[in-house]
Design a protein that fits this description.
single chain, 412 residues, mainly alpha, 16 helices, globular, Polysaccharide biosynthesis protein, membrane, cell membrane
Amino acid sequence: MTKTIQQHFYTAIYIALFSVLLGFGLKVYLATVIDKESLALYYTAIDVFSFSLLVLIGFRSSMVVSYNKIKEAGGIVNIFRYFLLVAMLASWGFVIPYIKHQIGVEVDYWYLVATIFSMSLYMYLSNQLAMYRLYKVMQRSSFIEPILSIVWFLIAFYVAEVKGIQALFIMSIMASFTLSIYIYILKSKKSKEPVIKRVIIDSEMRQFIKKSLISTLEFSSGMMLIYMAVFFFSHYYSVTELGDFQVVTKPILIYMITLFVFPVFRFLLPELSKLFYEKKKDEIAELKSWFYRFSFLVSTAFVVIFYFLGESLIALVFPAEYKDAYLYLSHLSFFFIFIMLNAYQVAFIKSSGAFTQALYIRLSGLAFFVVFFYLTRYFSESSIAVVFGLAMAYLGMFLFSWVIEKRVYKQL
């Protein structure tokens, strides 16, 4: 592995760390000024909206690949717009009523409509940043995103004196809109917005749509694990236990994934693809060896911190009502190593062009989660069953991808 790739990887972690610290600090602060039930319902609503828009995230990698191949953005962006419109209409017709009447989020409809629109706009522009490879704009937007959330919450809560869950939705809506405007201004200096027009579906566009759908399924299947955990908590357990997971456990897990897993697909996957087609087995082995050492170091630190010090740290940072979240984190910490190693394995498998196999790995994780959750719940009513099912899903995916990785490596 070259030093350049290592530097890109470490730089991405440093940038993400700043955003993570600010975002986590905001969550800690919100836990002191917003009641636990409102916070749990707000984060659950945002999770449901995010899940309904996963199709937009799934398009990102296929947009990058297709644009680099055909060097023409018009057809790609217009097809993406069609899928974006369908996703928004589906959210307005089905997701908003579910959040309003089933989850029980007591806010006016315009809050929910504005939330889905602002989130869609941000994803639309951020996907274009990836397609045009505007890395500096991507880094700047990641840097200011948590800052905008803090600013807009302070304006809503202290200046406009909006309280409770309404202030949280105003924060989310205005932060997304402001960030979208910022991205659009910077993006416009590098590339013009493609004209809206009818797209001719030729072989290239059909391949783009196919890759996008497979990528969407693969990405959404991976992310669905966490949303399934939210569903199981909200469906089988109390709002208190849901709050422990939503406010403490899930954010910390997401932060760890953001810091140490997402850079794998941003930097290591392209390098692996280049090395794979050049048949450079030694350099692939070197890259794998470095990342495995790095993964063991990070995972060991995670276990030490949250198994031995987690209870004290949570009590220090969060109000006393969130102390039980320590049990969830102490269990998950032992399995984070499999999340990191599985990320490398999937990146290597996708680098060879085996996207379908990557999808099978993600789908197996969902099956492992459901089986082990209900099996554990059969013997115990404890909410730890959710966390154990999630942990076994990560272990199962690691073992499955380990087998497929060996088959792919033999092609070299």
